[in-house]
């Protein structure tokens, strides 16, 4: 029997980046009334003229996702599931390799009782190899689906909070800034990341305390 028939299976579970992107947050389009300039002590509030055309802030999404405690929990839970899937697949592959090596040794020694017995065990190994390949594909898809669900949950959580955060209409526009985004420069006062992050973590802590 040719060795090529039993080529070893390499473990291919693509790593999922811990840091995920949320899309630009654009909410609460409310302008100033009567052509007056609003006085706003809140962090990030900038009004450049009396027309009310500029009142913009931004949130650094990289920082938010790395320091938002709910995001940390979701990603750690995901990494745990990823590690379990990898461990299960590696164990399955190791067991297959042991069976394969035993088959090869029996074939070398000519210790099969009959040709039919050898072919039967050979077919079992081929089937097991196919099963492992299918398991690998299923686990990869499962992890991708979980990552997509995680992203969607974080997106909804942040979007809903930002709407609540801006319910008083203090900003006409809130942008999401991240590495490689289109925001090349912004005044430091426009960064409301810390304020948003603190309130998000406070809210999360309250939900955990209430459980």
Compact overview of the structure:
The protein is mainly α and 211 residues long.
What is the succession of H and E elements?
EHHHEH
Rg (CA only): 28 Å
Please report the number of helical segments. 4
Major sheet description? 2 strands, parallel
Uncertain spans: 1-41, 49-53
- Rounded mean pLDDT is 79
Number of beta strands? 2
Strand order of the largest sheet: 1-2
Q: Helical percent range?
A: 40-55%
**Strand coverage percent:** under 5%
How far from one another are the termini?
61 Å
Could you please describe the fold and organization of this structure?
- The chain is mostly helical.
- Helix 1 packs parallel to helix 4 and helix 2 (69-109) runs antiparallel to helix 3.
- It contains four helices and two strands, in the order βαααβα.
- It has a two-stranded parallel ribbon with strand order 1-2.
- It has one domain.
Features:
single chain, 211 residues, mainly alpha, two-stranded parallel sheet, 4 helices, rod-shaped, disordered N terminus
Give a topology summary.
Layout: E1 56-60, H1 61-67, H2 69-109, H3 115-165, E2 173-177, H4 193-209
Parallel strand pairs: 1-2
């Amino acid at each position: 029997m040719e060795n090529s028939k039993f080529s070893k299976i390499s473990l291919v579970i693509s790593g999922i980046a811990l840091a995920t992107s949320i899309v630009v947050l654009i909410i609460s389009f409310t302008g100033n009334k009567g052509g007056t300039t609003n006085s706003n002590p809140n962090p990030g509030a900038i009004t450049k003229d009396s027309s009310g055309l500029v009142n913009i802030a931004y949130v650094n999404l990289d920082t938010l996702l790395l320091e938002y405690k709910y995001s940390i929990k979701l990603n750690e839970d995901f990494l745990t599931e990823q590690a379990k899937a990898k461990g299960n697949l590696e164990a399955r592959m190791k067991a297959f390799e042991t069976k394969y090596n035993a088959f090869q040794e029996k074939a070398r020694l000519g210790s099969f009782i009959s040709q039919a017995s050898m072919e039967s065990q050979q077919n079992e190994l081929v089937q097991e190899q196919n099963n492992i390949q299918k398991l690998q594909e299923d686990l990869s898809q499962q992890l991708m689906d979980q990552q997509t669900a995680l992203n969607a949950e974080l997106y909804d959580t942040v979007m809903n909070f930002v709407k609540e955060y801006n319910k008083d209409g203090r900003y006409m526009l809130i942008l999401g800034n991240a590495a490689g985004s289109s925001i090349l420069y912004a005044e430091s006062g426009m960064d409301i990341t810390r304020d948003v992050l603190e309130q998000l973590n406070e809210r999360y802590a309250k939900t955990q305390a209430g459980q």
